[in-house]
Amino acid sequence: MTVDPRDYLVVAVLLFSIGVAGFLTRRNLLVVFLSIELMLNAGGLALLTFARVRGSMDGHVLFFLILALAAAESAVGLSLFIALYRRKHAVEAEAVAELKG
Amino acid sequence: MEQVFFWAFSLTVVVASLNAMLRRRPLACALSLVVSFVGLAGLYVLLGAAFPAVLQVILYAGAIMVLVVFVLMFLNLPEDEWSRRSDVKKERMWPLLLVAPLAAVLIGLVRRIELPEPAPTSPEFGSVAGVGKALFTVWSYPFELVSLLLLVAVVGAVVIAKKKLD
User: pTM of the entire structure?
Assistant: First the structure.
């Protein structure tokens, strides 16, 4: 492997940071959801990098599990999004602030 | 050669992700993220993970993002409404002050990790057969739990999205 594995990890960190930034700054809940997907992907990239370094396929299996988790999360998250729009005609995170102290 | 592909894919992924977080319209965000996910699949191929790369394109760039776009069409909001509701406020920018140092520290740490020389891989590495064998032997218990998780998620999604909650 001619590319330093650490470079892959740097890309993963960059992706994760972009995801965190989007998660914290965007108002639209759908974009917040997409930011979470981005962070999950960053984790997947790190897993696959370590799998390559160790020459073990456990990282690939963990990536598969993350993928299944993301699918479950998107099903529930998007239906919550639809339910919120039905009740309040809102797509913003501020619309669900009733529990704010 | 590998270097060239690595930089091309990394640049695609980072630029597309940044674009996704900066665009105002959610549809543009979603489509930009599809580009980013396909670029990630390229990086996975470079890491010798062919099967995860295929899954990434089919499941992430395919299934999950189609679901997102489907929901966007389902709500059927006019375009200017989306833009207005997705506006980013200036007073909500302060978290970036925390994210930037976090990224800098993490990159500094990651660059100093001591990694052994990458182990030589078998021809089975990252193939469907290899991953499948690991999945159904060592990881069979988590695999079954994931099927339960998916069942619960699908039932939950149907209940939550129903018109009337009894």
Answer: 0.90
